[in-house]
Amino acid sequence: MMRVLAAMSGGVDSAVAAARAVDAGHDVVGVHLALSRMPGTLRTGSRGCCTIEDSRDAWRAAEKLGIPYYVWDFSERFKEDVVDDFVAEYAAGRTPNPCMRCNEKIKFAALLEKALALGFDAVCTGHYARVTRDADGHPELHRASDWAKDQSYVLGVLTETQLEHCLFPLADAPTKAAVRAEAAERGLSVAKKPDSHDICFIPDGDTAGWLAEKIEMQPGEIVDETGTTVGIHEGAQAFTVGQRRGLKLGRPAPDGRPRFVLSIEPKQNRVTVGPERLLAVEQIRGIRISWAGRPVPAAVVDPGSGASGCFEVLAQVRAHGDPVPAAAQVVTDETGDPALVITLAEPMRGVAPGQTVVLYQGTRVLGQATIDTARSPATA
């Protein structure tokens, strides 16, 4: 038996995960993380995961399970580590993933640190992922049984030390429908609660409008791939690589086909657009590497050459994106900092700096890196 701290978001997944931890005989305590700096905020539709309504739903689930329940205020840490980071990344022309930062900095850093300090053995969440052990007993992160709901991508930031204290009871859940059915059988009121989506701290889903209140926007040029001005924007930071809608171009493309955002240059306050084919990327360079468990031997950098060997991987750049076969290598730059160079076996569309690339071998998550640059074969 372990002392388990169950992170309860107020959704069906975390409620069933906590219930399964209780069934397994663990000593379980439920905790809801108050992340919003406006605790009176109410849920809008099915957006968000940290409103006052979610806190009440989590409390009702804990009461049904007969476990102690607490609310911990992590709003200051959340603002600094997730919200402020999100704004800073967009201001620099990058496209961040706030769920990755929340898992890295809040749920499996700040929360786990506090849990261990209080004598808990593990933190339990409702993520669809699996932790196993290799032949030497070291933890590994793997995809869940239900690939349609698999969330191992957003957990790719977890380290070996963190994986030692993670409990994912939904790893073997066959489908989300089965989890909802189980919640109903247990009498949990969240059984039919809609899934949260989009960015929890932007409740109306208008990311561009929200950013406009946080970043000083200045009008600038929209140019095509030849450098010809084709429109005017109200702020380069509000765009995302791969974006098609909302460009408001004054000059149509010569072939009449849609144009997409190819790059964003905040310093020049310029947005470049072009045909869809120019979104294809064949090589990715990632920084801020972390390994989910022990790195594979081929990823260890040789001190003499300053590079590792090449190793075969599957590269994924979105939470529910298709993994692409690739060859990866860790290299060090002139400052000695490591970078991950990933050469894709087939082009990947619309890769943006700031996104996270997660590497897999089979179902195992090897690790992740933040995309720094992406090279297109059409412009090489």
Automatic annotation (TrEMBL):
Residues 210-274 form the tRNA-specific 2-thiouridylase MnmA-like central domain. Its EC number is 2.8.1.13. Residues 308-371 form the tRNA-specific 2-thiouridylase MnmA-like C-terminal domain. The active site is at residues 102, 200. It comes from the Bacteria. Catalyzes the 2-thiolation of uridine at the wobble position (U34) of tRNA, leading to the formation of s(2)U34. Belongs to the MnmA/TRMU family. This is tRNA-specific 2-thiouridylase MnmA. The lineage of its organism: Bacteria, Bacillati, Actinomycetota, Actinomycetes, Micrococcales.
